[in-house]
Amino acid sequence: MIPELKADLLRRRVAVARVVHGPHMLAFLPALTLAGYWLGGEIALLVVALGLPALYAISADSDVEPLDPTRPLPDLIDITMANDLAEQILARATGFDLSTACFVIEAEGLEDIRRRSGDDPIHSLHGSILRRLRREVRRGDRVVRIGDTRFLVLLAPSLRLDLEALLTMADRIQRSLEEPCDTETGTHYLSFAVGFCGSHRLGDDVTGPQLVEAAQTALAEAVSNGPSAIRAWSDSMSAERKARKTLLHEIERALALGQIQPWFQPQICTSTGSISGVEALARWLHPTRGIVSPKEFLTVLAEAGQLDRLSEVILEQSLTAMRAWDAEGIIIPQVSVNFTDVELRNPHLVERIKWELDRHGMAPSRLGIEVLETVIAESPEGIVARNIVGLSKLGCQVDLDDFGTGHASITALRRFTVHRLKIDRSFVTRVDRDEEQRRMLAAVLGLADRLGLKTVAEGVESVSEHALLSQLGCDHVQGFGIARPMPADQMADWAKRHGAKIAKARNLGRSTG
Predict the structure, then answer these.
(1) 282/485 Cα distance (integer angstroms)
(2) Distance (Å, rounded) from C-alpha 392 to C-alpha 414?
(3) In a 10 Å sphere around its CB, with 0-12 CB exposed, 13-18 middle and 19+ buried, how is residue 262 labelled?
(4) Can you give the CATH number for the domain in which 497 is found?
(5) Are 292 and 299 in contact (CB under 8 A)?
(6) pLDDT, mean of residues 277-294
(7) For residue range 166-195, what is the model confidence (pLDDT) as tens digits?
(8) Would you say residue 296 lies in a domain?
(9) Is 53 inside a domain boundary?
(10) Is the backbone of residue 113 left (phi > 0), alpha (psi -120 to 50) or beta?
(11) Containing structural domain, residue 127
């Protein structure tokens, strides 16, 4: 049944129940029976006599029976069941002129524990969180888990659920949940973000799904404002959420139409000057807004859980571009594609990449897998580690991106079979003018050399930075000072011009020698 229709029917039944079962009805039963006899005779009397029990039966339908607080719910339910539960509680509340409220709570830190210690402590923590939540609410309130890190609390109908009362309750719940929690793997400290909405803030026509969505919107605002934040739903949040949904729809359409595509930034070998590879960077070519910044759409895709779809598009188009460059005789040894920790948790990632390489007739060594240093530092075990090792064994080149900004150990660099370190631009900026910066960069390059790892410096913006990096022994450079990211066809033209320039320089060198 359509949710809005179901909600309306439920409210009507509750209204009938109020009228029929209310104590005032007893006073009208004799008068109603007598009026039926006088106005319609024996037939009307029979209608009244038979109709009232039927009306009682209809109004006592199980759909509007008071919620049984002793009837257990599963600890984990999906969002459809959560919406239905909210609809049932909301219908009961509005039918008796009461209020309800929805809290959605995000456990921040569970994924880090899963990456470090596996699934066993997570099951224990889920149970502990549910028990603590149930201690903080009343007997008729409902507490369930609606995801790996997300929990839902629906309050039973109440007279006083104003903003102050709900804020007090949110604070009490948060303080209880953030107490240290012991499992077999040790003591864990989690932070919790809370979003909530009272039914009275959404108007008379609110539905259960709308109440749950409002609380989720408030939670998204809380999460975006740092750990342990609490937010109540407001109209402005709703407008922002609607705008993000519209943007997500546009992004999905852009992916389907090929408007989001890789642009390529060249990497140059410092010893030969030749192109040693390119990095594929996602760009959205919007038909009216022009080039949309990745910051605008990557966050939305991440929130919607669709980064895998973007990765598929970028990988497929990058390999297609490589094949086209090969056909033109353009020598570009490797294309590097960025992979987030979300994508690296895909258990079928290695098989998918192998299939794409085979389909394009591309050797695995020509594909670089760029992984953030923080991903390796936080994922010593599990599916992420297995995928990185599996891709390396397949023959792909593993680049550790933004090196120097995370906390990856030397042991992790060896275990994950990293081939190149991409030195973060924060080490490169002003290296030609800052002696301390130069010493730090020299130390990083020395470490890479002793470990037998190649290096790529990001963010090179001047000829002097390029020259100094060459002198310090950095193997490859990349940045605006060399070339900005560009579409595949422009990359082909740039590569031809760059190749001609390098050939000319070599010829001049031989003639002067």
Answers:
(1) 10
(2) 12
(3) buried
(4) 3.20.20.450
(5) no
(6) 86
(7) 999 999 999 999 999 888 878 888 999 999
(8) no
(9) yes
(10) alpha
(11) 79-233
| Beta-carbon count within 10 A of 312 CB | 14
Same domain, 14 and 145: no
Sign of CA dihedral 131, 132, 138, 140: negative
Q: Are residue 122 and residue 183 in the same domain, yes or no?
A: yes
Amino acid at 305: G
Whether 345 and 317 map to the same domain: the answer is yes
**Could you tell me if 236 and 220 are in contact, meaning their C-beta atoms sit under 8 angstroms apart?**
no
The span from the CA of 436 to the CA of 311, in Å, is 38
**What pLDDT is stored for residue 203 in this prediction?**
82
Among 21, 38, 64, which residue terminates a domain? Answer: 64
User: What backbone torsions phi and psi does residue 40 show, to the nearest 5 degrees?
Assistant: -130, 0
Instruction: Give the pLDDT mean for 381-402.
Output: 87
Q: In the predicted model, what is the mean pLDDT of residues 336-352?
A: 88
Q: Cα dist. 309→98, 251, 298, 313, 414 in Å?
A: 45, 11, 11, 6, 30
What beta strand segments (E) does 311-418 contain?
Answer: 335-339, 367-372, 397-403
Tokens read off for 185: 């793997």
Q: What is the dihedral of CA 482, 486, 490, 491, to 10 degrees?
A: 60
Total residues belonging to the chain = 513
The pair of three-digit structure tokens given for residue 175, joined into one six-digit string = 């303080």
Number of domains the chain contains? 3
pLDDT, tens digit (0-9, with 9 covering 90-100), for 211-234:
999 999 899 888 877 788 999 998
In a domain, 298, yes or no: no
- Taking residues 19-32, report their average pLDDT: 47
